[in-house]
Write a structure and sequence with these properties.
Blueprint lengths: L3 E7 L4 E7 L1 H25 L4 H5 L1 E4 L7 E3 L2 E3 L3 E5 L8 E9 L3 H13 L5 E10 L9 E2 L2 H11 L8 E3 L2 E4 L1 E13 L2 E4 L3 E5 L2 E2 L12 H4 L8 H4 L8 H23 L1 E2 L3
Parallel strand pairs: 7-8, 9-16
Antiparallel strand pairs: 1-2, 3-6, 4-5, 6-7, 8-12, 10-11, 12-13, 12-14, 14-15
Helix pairs in contact: 1-7
Length: about 270
């Protein structure tokens, strides 16, 4: 099976969490969100007159670069992590991203808050994706020929799917019921949670009616000492771009469906 795993070991509770996730949906969205945040932060700071040296210190890390963070015996890898490279500080993490694909809300929220609670980041962003009504993976499908399978791949490539991607009554991808963001900020008064911002709600694309700001600011990317002007620090970094995100999400759904075909298909023997 073409699946990837991440292991989270918590040294306090002695629990091991093994997450298995489809690479296209999970990694595609992780990469796009982190890239969008970094690019928009750099753009806003450049317009505000922040020096190139400071801007260049904002960098992304994550499972692609095999970044691992430890707390005692605990081990966890981020879906996405934005760092500020300060040679005088051992705490480089600024914004962490956790993406959950059909993961329970409570489990995903716990994984997201871990970054703030363990002082690995001051802001944590959560993206929750929920798939429902997928056909049972125990059913192994048969195709009449390689040509039939190729036709399935060709006719679905480039399609747009929120609802089921299916062939001959079999749902290779079910229904994307919900896709929403939440942010968590560490403040002097505790952790502040944002209201959820939905891309998809109850299987309906609602991006035209959502705000484009998740209240992430320049100050979330850069510590004091590097940018001290409070007016600059309060500048919004509007990284949420609904149309490109939905295009990426739609492409990832189709890719995941087609990968499931590749993992599970059989061709009838004549």
């Amino acid at each position: 099976m073409n699946q990837k795993y991440r292991v989270w070991y918590d040294g306090d509770t002695h629990k091991v969490t093994i997450n298995c996730y489809p690479s296209d949906v999970h990694e595609g969205m992780s990469t796009m969100v982190v890239d969008s945040m970094v690019d928009e932060a750099r753009r806003v700071m450049h317009i505000a007159g922040v020096s190139d040296d400071v801007i260049s210190r904002i960098r992304k890390a994550g499972p692609v670069t095999r970044t691992s963070l430890y707390r005692g015996k605990s081990h966890k890898e981020p879906d996405g992590l934005i760092e500020f490279k300060d040679p005088a500080s051992i705490h480089a993490g600024r914004i962490a991203l956790e993406v959950g694909f059909s993961q329970s809300y409570s489990s995903l929220q716990r994984a997201t808050l871990w970054w703030i609670e363990q002082k690995k980041a001051t802001v944590a962003v959560m993206l929750c994706l929920t798939e429902i009504e997928k056909s049972s993976s125990e059913v192994r499908r048969q195709f009449g020929s390689i040509e039939e399978l190729t036709l399935l791949r060709t006719t679905n490539t480039g399609a747009s799917h929120i609802r089921a991607a299916q062939y001959n009554g079999y749902k290779w991808f079910g229904i994307l019921r919900d896709a929403f963001f939440e942010t968590y900020h560490q403040t002097d008064c505790g952790v502040i949670k944002s209201e959820p911002v939905y891309l998809v709600k109850d299987a309906v694309d609602i991006t035209e009616s959502i705000p484009s700001d998740l209240t992430v600011t320049v100050g979330d990317f850069v510590p004091y000492g590097w940018v001290n002007d409070d007016d600059v620090r309060r500048l919004a970094v509007k990284f949420l771009q609904p149309k490109p995100l939905m295009e990426e999400l739609s492409d990832a759904v189709v890719s995941t469906a087609l990968q499931r075909v590749q993992d599970a298909f059989e061709v009838q023997q004549e």
